UniProtKB/TrEMBL annotation:
<protein>
    <submittedName>
        <fullName>Membrane transport protein</fullName>
    </submittedName>
</protein>
<keyword id="KW-1133">Transmembrane helix</keyword>
<keyword id="KW-0813">Transport</keyword>
<feature type="transmembrane region" description="Helical">
    <location>
        <begin position="126"/>
        <end position="148"/>
    </location>
</feature>
<keyword id="KW-0812">Transmembrane</keyword>
<dbReference type="GO" id="GO:0005886">
    <property type="term" value="C:plasma membrane"/>
</dbReference>
<keyword id="KW-1003">Cell membrane</keyword>
<dbReference type="InterPro" id="IPR004776">
    <property type="entry name" value="Mem_transp_PIN-like"/>
</dbReference>
<dbReference type="GO" id="GO:0055085">
    <property type="term" value="P:transmembrane transport"/>
</dbReference>
<keyword id="KW-0472">Membrane</keyword>
<comment type="similarity">
    <text>Belongs to the auxin efflux carrier (TC 2.A.69) family.</text>
</comment>
<feature type="transmembrane region" description="Helical">
    <location>
        <begin position="69"/>
        <end position="87"/>
    </location>
</feature>
<dbReference type="InterPro" id="IPR038770">
    <property type="entry name" value="Na+/solute_symporter_sf"/>
</dbReference>
<dbReference type="Pfam" id="PF03547">
    <property type="entry name" value="Mem_trans"/>
</dbReference>
<feature type="transmembrane region" description="Helical">
    <location>
        <begin position="93"/>
        <end position="114"/>
    </location>
</feature>
<feature type="transmembrane region" description="Helical">
    <location>
        <begin position="27"/>
        <end position="48"/>
    </location>
</feature>
Length: 181
């Protein structure tokens, strides 16, 4: 998962804003939403499936069904289509929960990093993950831009080589702890 998903939220989006301004942000937000939906479906599926040797396809699909982000996105689309406006009080509550998300994930990341010893790292998989993330993924993204009729700004606006997504780390923790590994 570390190589498959980019950190285009709290890291990539400000980077795009800095490099390309508001014009680049239009594309970055769309890419971020699509990537988050993929992570909350495909990413959760593979994290649940890989959490233990005995994990079944049914178990993994049940884990995907439990992820509320997809339902929230569908509800957001419905609200948008029917022009439903939410009250200010509700939006304040949603904003407060949203503002707590990144610090909470950072605390979990710090707790996980505290347990890591450089001596016990599997250097082969780590090296492969880094090569994929920093070299192969940007190259593949660049090749795709050659074959699609995209605006120049959109061709430059891919943050595939950003560091790993915190959500990948969160799903790893969630499914490792649940299965006692």
């Amino acid at each position: 998962m570390a190589s498959a998903f980019m950190n285009n939220g709290n890291y990539g989006t400000p980077l795009i804003l800095f490099a390309f301004g508001e014009a680049g942000m239009k594309y970055a937000v769309i890419i971020m939403v699509i990537q988050q939906l993929l992570m909350c479906t495909v990413g959760v599926y593979y994290a649940a499936k890989g959490a233990s040797e005995s994990a079944s396809i049914k178990t993994a699909i049940n884990e995907v069904i439990k992820v509320p982000i997809v339902y929230g996105a569908l509800l957001g689309i419905i609200f948008h289509l029917f022009h439903v406006r939410l009250g200010e009080t509700l939006m304040d509550a949603v904003s407060m929960v949203g503002n707590a998300a990144i610090p909470t994930i950072m605390i979990i990341l710090g707790m996980q990093l505290a347990k890591i010893s450089v001596k016990t790292l599997s250097k082969g998989p780590l090296t492969l993950s880094l090569v994929i993330k920093l070299l192969l993924s940007p190259a593949i993204a660049w090749v795709f831009t050659l074959f699609f009729p995209l605006e120049d700004l959109l061709k430059k606006n891919h943050d595939r080589s950003c560091r790993n997504a915190n959500c990948s780390q969160y799903y790893h923790v969630r499914f490792t702890i649940r299965n006692g590994a």
